């Protein structure tokens, strides 16, 4: 069963998003179609990085909205940086020097650090909302050392 999200205009992030959202608008619309809907329906933005007021919010919404916003945007920041690193990896030439090696190693460590941050934020959001947003359980994994 395919669910179709309906929001007023998800493309508004191309013009009204912050600089990071505008830069990655096409990627966001392609890979995270619910991104704009989540911000429009749950958070809002007054153009000055402040959430819009909610009409008669529940106690739960009042208590959780700011933390949700912070976590969701932190996740998006790391995802954006992973997209940037992925683009750099795709254009990287051969490693020809120690400097190239260190730069490449640092980029890969940063990439995996951002993946960990994404995981942590997604888990925190799911836990914050009592697991109600998790489409599938987040699975722990580890890489065994031989």
Describe the structure.
With 146 residues, the chain is an all-alpha fold. The protein has two domains: 8-53, no CATH class; 56-131. The protein is built from six helices and no strands. The longest helix has 33 residues, at 59-91. The chain starts with 12 loop residues before the first helix and ends in an 18-residue tail after the last helix.
Annotate the secondary structure layout.
Elements: H1 13-16, H2 19-23, H3 25-31, H4 34-43, H5 59-91, H6 98-128
How widely separated are the two ends? 42 Å
> Unreliable stretches, pLDDT < 50, 5 or more residues?
1-7
Mean pLDDT across all amino acids: 80
How many structural domains in the coordinates? 2
Sheet with most strands: none
DSSP summary: helix tally: 6
H/E series: HHHHHH
> What would you call the shape?
elongated
Key terms for this structure?
elongated; mainly alpha; disordered N terminus; 146 residues; 0% strand; 62% helix; 2 domains
Summarize the structure.
This protein has 146 residues and is mainly α.
């Amino acid at each position: 069963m395919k669910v179709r999200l309906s929001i007023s205009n998800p493309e508004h992030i191309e013009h009204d998003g912050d600089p990071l959202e505008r830069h990655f608008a096409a990627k966001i619309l392609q890979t995270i179609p619910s991104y704009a809907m989540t911000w429009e329906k749950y958070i809002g933005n007054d153009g000055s990085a402040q959430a819009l007021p909610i009409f008669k919010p529940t106690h739960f919404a009042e208590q959780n909205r700011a933390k949700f916003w912070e976590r969701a945007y932190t996740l998006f920041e790391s995802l954006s940086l992973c997209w940037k690193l992925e683009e750099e990896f795709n254009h990287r030439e051969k490693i020809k020097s120690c400097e190239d090696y260190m730069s490449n190693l640092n980029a890969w460590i940063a990439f995996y650090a951002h993946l960990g941050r994404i995981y942590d934020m997604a888990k925190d959001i799911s836990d914050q909302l009592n697991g109600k947003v998790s489409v599938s359980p987040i699975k722990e994994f580890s890489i065994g050392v031989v």
